[in-house]
Amino acid sequence: MCPMNIREGFDGSVGNTPLIKLRSISEETGCTILGKAEFMNPGGSVKDRAALFIIDDAEKSGKLKPGGVVVEGTAGNTGIGLTHICNARGYKSMIVIPDNQSIEKIETLRTLGADVKTVPPAPFANENNYVHVSRRLAESLPNAIWANQFDNTSNRRAHFETTGKEIWQQTDGKLDAFTCATGTGGTFAGVAEYLKQQNKSIRTIVADPMGSGVYSWVKNGEFKSQGNSFSEGIGIMRLTRNLEGAPIDDAVQVDDSEMINILYKLLRKDGIFLGGSAGINVAAAVKVAQQLGPGHTIVTILCDGGARYQSKLFNSDWQKEKGLTPDLVD
Ligand code: PMP
To answer: What is the model's pTM?
Structure first.
């Protein structure tokens, strides 16, 4: 046990992140909009929590043995969290990542020492999809486990036991709504389930980027998508085990121009530098605030920081090429 203000290693530093009042949009909406600062986790994202629970559970069940290899298919952040923990505990990591994810995340994984395999993007139904490639690799290697973040509910439990509980405690239970996007669904489902257990009247609303099927699934019961998004790590076309049974009251859809404008507003007015999925989440929180009206408290997730996307979202040439120049640049 460490003294109260000292955290034990990487693992002990995961979680207990600040809950930040986002001043500009709180003033604009007359609501209190709070962002859980997951970019302040030691591996830089919300996925450190899932990575820690997945590895802890694999050790406890005896599947992960000394010197073992943790294999995962990831948009990057889960791989980064897993690799940090593998390094700290004497395991190796092998990470399969679609080659359209940001170069910053891919290079970070390499620097950390992961065995990185980039693959062309492919839909989940295609056997060359990164998730299936990672499963086959895990099956073919000796002393390896597949982290399986989409369907391994250690992920959701991490957010039920930590993120959800922290939000409840940090707000003193005084919140009206929670919204965030889904990649595996672990964050949304774990937090929503915890909050609903404390107070059924808290509204739990999925945020969804274009190109993802969750919005239409919530509204009409079918995973259908329209358009596309340059956000990374979010958007799904199937009901993962982590999302299954989650309490969902509603969904809101956010497009990339709304995402980029809110990212620049947070950067220039609040001094907070965030990644694309956090932009989708905060834009969704603003929509929920507008729906509920002034005087409400809405919580969302600030999944990771903007430095992971400097070569894309925050690059003016890229923005011009994609037609995503932000409204507010100074
Ligand atoms: N944002 C980013 C940047 C992510 O990497 C992820 C994880 N894929 C998410 C959001 C979504 O989190 P979850 O998997 O818990 O739904």
So the answer is: 0.97
